[in-house]
Amino acid sequence: MSKRKSSGSAVVSESACYSELQKVLRQQIYKISAPCDVDGESDLDKPRRHLLDLIQRCSSMGESNSALIIGPRGAGKTMLLSSVLEDLKENRDFRDNVLEVHLNGLLQTDDRIALKEITRQLQLENVVGDRVFGSFADNLAFLLEALKKGSRDSQAVLFVLEEFDLFAHHKNQTLLYNLFDIAQSQQAPITVIGLTCRLDVIELLEKRVKSRFSHRQIHLFNSLTFDQYLEVFESLLTLPSELRDKKFCAKWNKHVQNLSEDQGVTSILKKLYDTSKDIRTLKTFLMLPVARINPSHPRLEMADFVEAHKLLTADSKSNTLHGLSVLELCLVVAMRRLSDIFVNQPFNFQMVYNEYQKFVQTRSHAVQSFDRPVVLKAFEHLQQMELVRAAEGSGTGGRGQKEFRPMLLMIDKSQLMQAIQKYPACPTEVKHWANTL
Predict the structure, then answer these.
(1) What is the pLDDT of residues 294-318, one digit of tens each?
(2) For residue 41, which phi and psi values (nearest 5 degrees)?
(3) Do 226 and 273 contact (CB within 8 A), yes or no?
(4) Cα distances (angstroms) measured from residue 308 to each of 229, 236, 244, 312, 314
């Protein structure tokens, strides 16, 4: 009995260790946070100090500012701002004196929705009530005036505009104009921070908006070397020393260190690094291997990384081809043949239909033949799926002319061959036809 109890407690202990391991690793992977400190000064240090100083001056001295954080997707714009705010919130004065308003150009698609969201986040719905304002500017000014505490200065407000370039497409850019105008004229202590991936975002602004913007721009670019990339990979999978089971923790960390030195794993990471250097892609890549860890699968294996890389780099168009009917697949092969014969030249439905008919007539014993209207319908379905598009300058064509409209195929030979190899129950004749390309 004692042996059973002891073995049972050991199993529970092991499952608890793996449960804690899963929890810690998922937090490290899913959380938007800066990667571990790599050797040398980080590229984020200077922009971080600049942004920290900008927001700090607003909270402590009531100084209004505006700035744009510009960089490609995955460069760390949101992470940088989040880490700066996290540090500042450790100061009680900052928490008491600064209100945050977070807007996103994908959600707040016009200024009316944006103003409602500002009112909600500032918790001023009761103050506004059923008031009717003459203009957007009056409404925004009233909201900021309502934040004043008696005779004291107004509370500072930090406006964070994600997808900043989308706000520039709002009618008359009223929101941007009023925010920058308040910041420039010092009507109330506000700081406007915009995040965008467009380098030409300043050119999108109207002249009156541009003149009120401070033109502070913080540029972020991911310049990690592969060695630093490997360090980040190791840090994301390494367990902190605070875990209860020190022996299990040391054993796991040794396993992770061996992984980062394994030639097979580093070759996959090198492929991933050459495709995209950003940490977000690396975290996405690690999700599947980490999710599989359990007592029956206690280690990260090479097969896990191979499958994760395969899923991450899967070609969406090749996957789309797997869902086509045999007729539609035959039309794609016919179009690929025409594209190879007439290099860089468009084709039309009539040419595709003639090519398809030649194939069917020579292999009528193995392939089902379809009437012209059915084939045309299948061709139009390929257009809807954007596997085929109209050639530039071809126009939409009039009634009865769609059979002769110039078209271009959006799939290359390698994508087609990959799809045919994996196509479920693909007719042998179609495979042979495709192999003659």
Answers:
(1) 888 888 999 999 999 988 887 778 7
(2) -75, 135
(3) yes
(4) 18, 16, 30, 6, 10
